[in-house]
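Note to self: the last two entries modelled the partners one at a time, which told us nothing about the interface. This time every component goes in together.
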Amino acid sequence: MSQGFSVRAGKLQEGSREIGDLQERCQIIAADAVDALARMTGSAGHADLVSALEGAEARGERTFGALTMAYQHVGVGVAASAENYANTERVIAGQAGTIFGRLR
Amino acid sequence: MTIPGGDPEALELSAARLEVAAAGVADLGNSTHQVTCSILSDADWTGDAADAFTTFTGNLSRGAVAVQAPLSRIATAVRDYASYLRTAQQQVKAYQSASLAAQLSGDTGYLGDVQTAGQQAESAIAAWQAAGDRAAAEVGAATGQLSDVFGSQGPVQSWLGRQPTQWDAVDGLAGLGEPLGPQILGTPPGDPGPQILKTPSGDFGPEILITPGGDFGPEILITPPRDLGQELLGTPAAPLWPMINYSTGDGGIKGATGSIGKLSEDFDYSTRDIRTAIHTIKRLARLPGNPDVVVDPSGEVYPVGQDGLAGDPIGNILDVLPPQ
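The predicted structure of the combined assembly is written out below.
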């Protein structure tokens, strides 16, 4: 159940930026995919297919929106954890400084 | 006999783009797995929060990879349909040309050719109709696959289900960079004492582990740092919802629509440009509550209230769309 404060907060912070990069990639892919679906809808010329493609476009938008949100959530969560661990290290460092100051 | 509508070249181009996007999202999922593994190992991150992170991102990675198949399925179906559409258009044109030539010449010797061309055109149209039906069924099935990429019981889907509003935008998320929603990825627990005992990092760690004499050691172990956790675990200040909601009706404005695809066609801009333009208008208007919007044929953007009716216009997308 324990969580070690051997955690390297700086690495976690770097990781949150990498997650942010993934989120950006996701948004770019999402825009391309939904744009392609929208153009298909406009070019199909078959009523049932147009209707199906409209549904796919709407669903695609939702799915990619969910993916993007999840990446954002992960990035924010990792950054928050990194900050938390960094704060803990600072507090420990401060406490330790007090201890050693008193011990002198 | 009329030439079937539609643009096979545009369909094939869009199918190719969708294939690229499908490959891209699969690659994204694989990259996500690699990045999250690296984060865990590089940061030497273990414990409950790390476990939650692993579970959530594993589901996320698989979800991203799972988007590839339905997108590819749609691309394949549409590409197949496009070939039938092209053939049908060509055959009907050939029939129309043969008919015209027969009429102009007045030569009854052409009638056999016209009849043959007519039969071929009818066959091609029937094949095109059938291909359209097949493609529609394929696209419908693929759309169903897109609905469940995370699995209904997965942590990502569970988390999404707890979000306060619909999540349908692909660009722009409110409150980027702010804590959003309960942090299911976890933060160090409120009582970090035992963790401090485990392996403090940095130069101070060994000294603390030594357990200094006097009364100070226990104090470190039992007093959790005051700033840990609470802010992050609390309810976020900013709700997580899309910056853009699109209304499904016209809001009572003649010719208005909330469909990005239709607006893209009407204004001859990409859906990305349209989204960005609406996003900009909404941001500039600073409307509370992130309402749905509709756009009329002149580009005016209207917020739509809970009653489904449009309010006063808040701007015009033509003012913010890039020059063509």
